[in-house]
Amino acid sequence: MSFTRTRTRTRTRTAVAAAVLVAASTAFAAPAHGVGAQHRAASRFDDGSFESPKAPANGFTDLTAGQTVGPWRITAGSVDLIGAGYWQAAEGDQSLDLNGTDSGTIAQTFTTVPGTTYSVTYALAGNPDGGPALRTGRALIDGQDFQDFSFDVTGKTRAAMGYVGRQFSFVAHNPTTTLGFRSTVAGAFGPVLDDVQVKECKPCCN
């Protein structure tokens, strides 16, 4: 198993002008880096299949609080980004185990229209390699518990994960909304997520 647990007056005027341009450029570029940038809302929900960055083929990358998986932030604990071939994905090549060395939480913030109803769908399975048979967790909206979920891994294998679809809807109250998922089972074997989608719906069915 492989994993990764990364002096003339004219010249003076020119120099001043260049400094102004550099300062202006830096002022606009600065938000693209640093901790603050991780918490900015994306223009739209993205990468619900956890395809970027790439984890090792037939392996996984362990990520801890403060790190990111594309537009997702790990906000607590640790998670495993599962690479292509390690086990069956529901969509694309990669998926996410919500437990790394222990239970973890992920979140993504994106723009929404207040008063609009959105539908969240996701594929749910569980790490079949060990631990208690029942994998449990919660979906969160703006940090609040919104939907509990569970998955029984009895009889499941890496080649046949047995993904099931889950869905819920929410009404946005702010120009940005944060969708999160939290494992509620201890240990290194957690719920597995893939193919998370957020879409505006009119009307929406729960």
Can you give me a brief rundown of this structure?
Helix content is 12%, strand content 39%. It has helices spanning 9-29, 35-38, and strands spanning 60-64, 68-69, 72-76, 78-82, 95-97, 105-111, 117-126, 134-141, 144-152, 164-171, 176-183, 191-200.
Task: Name some characteristics of this structure.
Jelly Rolls, single chain, disordered N terminus, six-stranded antiparallel β-sheet, mainly beta, 39% strand, 206 residues
Q: Can you give a write-up of this model?
A:
It is a single chain. By secondary structure, this protein is mostly beta strands. It is 12% helix and 39% strand. It has a six-stranded antiparallel β-sheet, with no helix packed on it. A six-stranded antiparallel β-sheet has the order 2-3-6-11-8-9, with no helix packed on it. The protein has one domain: Sandwich (Jelly Rolls).
Proportion of residues in helical segments: 10-25%
Number of DSSP helical runs: 2
**Mean pLDDT reading:** 84
CATH architectural type: Sandwich
Q: State the CATH topology.
A: Jelly Rolls
- Gyration radius, to the nearest Å? 21 Å
Strands across the major sheet, in which order?
A: 1-4-5-12-7-10
Cα(first) to Cα(last) distance is 40 Å
The secondary structure category is mainly beta
Strand content: 35-45%
Unreliable spans are 1-38
Which homologous superfamily in CATH is the superfamily?
Galactose-binding domain-like
